[in-house]
Design goal:
This protein is an alpha/beta fold. The protein contains 14 helices and 17 strands. Helix content is 37%, strand content 16%. The protein is globular, with a radius of gyration of 23 Å. The structure holds pyridoxal-5'-phosphate (PLP).
């Protein structure tokens, strides 16, 4: 890899934007064009500046290639599955082909069921509705991979929440001990933390689950657009993700996995499209024969453009290649980490002392300043969009010692080193100002 960094500046020395700009290394361009890259936003001083979008982990902007394909599909859009008209047939083919594209992008098994959902949250709620017995989860999860397991609708399943340890190694041992202690149907884990970006060792987690007779569900919301994933070679039984975090707009998500649980469970939604035959005459109010496969759980008119945009995003991401994506993020991460380390009072968040890989997410706090104050300052005075709060991971934020929340910068294919440098310059100025000229910014 080409070195793009200078040595980190000592954290004891106060640095200025002018000092750091020269020392950060050469310009890193965007990896791929995204829609909205040239959006101008107003500042409180009346100027407008180009928006620095450092909030990809919340929702990534559409890749331009995805937007173009979706716009083309929109021109030929009609109802799916029911119409004999040409556009209906075309749209149905597109919708069904989207399943195959997703399956091959995540290297699923040929007979895996691919259900289009509203988002990851919906996908994991669907997974919860088909899972027969106990589920083991970590306490570091996004609520989407915690609450569906902790609130079973019929009491047939328990969520067994394992406290993550300070290292990945110890956490794997704790999970293994829990799975060995009593049978469980499923281990449900995140692939990458939405708070710190740290990547978990999915193949090892899958081996642990399988060794104890459990299946594994991977919440890939923060990984699928950033690393190569192979359900077959990682041994993943179920995978959930959202289109809007993977450069695909239009609000759809995916749950893909082994078909037997899908087919054995009650339909996720009751209604048209999920049925083979319905008879409500006389006493036969329950005389409904349901489809098997994806249709069983997709009642109602589906989000065709959502599915098409996910498929287009998969194609675009495959074209970019996981190596190029990973390298782009690594360079930006290194630049951001070195810059943050040089700013007094900025403290990066980390869960595991031994994590070796991280997607383009940096969670941090600024001493003495509430996360919302920092985020508003970055937006109002510098046109930089970051996320602040508890990131739907309240147990994790409490464990990290920040129950009031933190700030998160996140990036991806459309990010340049200028975006990162602007954040570092703004934080440098904020940290320099905070003790004297900003007494009102005390932590709330
Ligand atoms: C790791 C993780 N899982 C699940 C979700 C929920 O995704 P969605 O809001 O698209 O349902 C998120 C969203 O931030 C996430 O980061």
């Amino acid at each position: 890899m080409t070195a793009v960094l200078s040595a980190p500046v000592s954290s004891s020395a106060r640095v200025t934007p002018a000092d750091t700009a020269a020392s950060r290394g050469r310009f890193i361009p965007a990896l791929a064009p995204v829609v909205g890259a040239d959006v101008q936003v107003p500042l409180t001083d009346g100027r407008t500046v180009a928006y620095a979008n450092l909030d990809y982990a919340a929702s990534a902007p559409a890749l331009s290639a995805v937007a173009a394909e979706v716009a083309a599909a929109l021109g030929q859009y009609a109802s799916v599955h029911r119409g004999a008209g040409h556009l209906s047939q075309l749209t149905t083919r597109r919708y069904e082909a989207a399943r195959d594209t997703v399956r091959s992008f995540v290297r699923g098994r040929p007979d895996d069921t691919v259900v289009f959902t509203r988002n990851t949250t919906d996908a994991i709620n669907l997974a919860a509705s088909i899972t027969p017995a106990d589920v083991v989860v970590l306490d570091i999860e996004h609520h989407a991979n915690l609450l569906p397991w902790c609130t079973p609708k019929d009491g047939r399943r328990r969520a067994r929440v394992v406290t993550a340890c300070d290292t990945i190694e110890d956490t794997l041992a704790a999970l293994e001990a829990e799975l060995a202690s009593a049978p469980a149907s499923l281990l449900a884990v995140t692939a990458a933390s939405n708070v710190t970006g740290e990547v978990l060792p999915i193949s090892r987690l899958a081996s642990i689950a399988h060794r104890h007779g459990a299946r594994i569900l991977v919440d890939a919301a923060q990984l699928v657009a950033h690393r190569a994933l192979s359900m077959v070679s990682h041994g993943i039984d179920y995978l959930a993700f959202s289109g809007h975090k993977a450069y695909a707009p239009f609000g759809a998500g995916v749950l893909i996995g082994r078909s037997d649980w899908f087919d054995a469970a009650d339909p996720y939604l009751a209604g048209g499209g999920a049925t083979l035959d319905v008879d409500v005459s006389g006493t036969r109010q329950t005389g409904t024969t349901w489809h098997t496969g994806a249709a069983r759980h997709e009642a109602g008119s589906p989000n065709v453009l959502g599915a098409v945009s996910i498929a287009e995003a998969c194609t675009a991401l495959a074209d970019l290649g996981p190596e190029a994506i990973g390298l782009h993020e690594l360079r930006l991460c290194e630049r951001l980490d070195a810059g943050l380390a040089a700013i007094d009072g900025v403290r990066p968040l980390r869960i595991f002392a031994d994590s070796a890989d991280r997607v383009g997410i940096a969670g941090f706090v600024v001493d003495g300043l509430a996360p919302r104050v920092v985020a508003e300052y970055l937006s109002d005075e510098h046109g930089i969009g970051v996320r602040d709060g508890k990131f739907c991971a309240h147990p994790l934020l409490k464990r990290l010692g920040h129950p009031g929340g933190a700030v998160r910068a996140s990036f991806g294919a459309g990010t340049t080193s200028d975006d990162v440098d602007r954040l570092l310059d703004a934080l440098t100025a904020l940290a320099a100002d905070a003790p004297t000229t900003r007494p009102e910014l005390d932590e709330g």
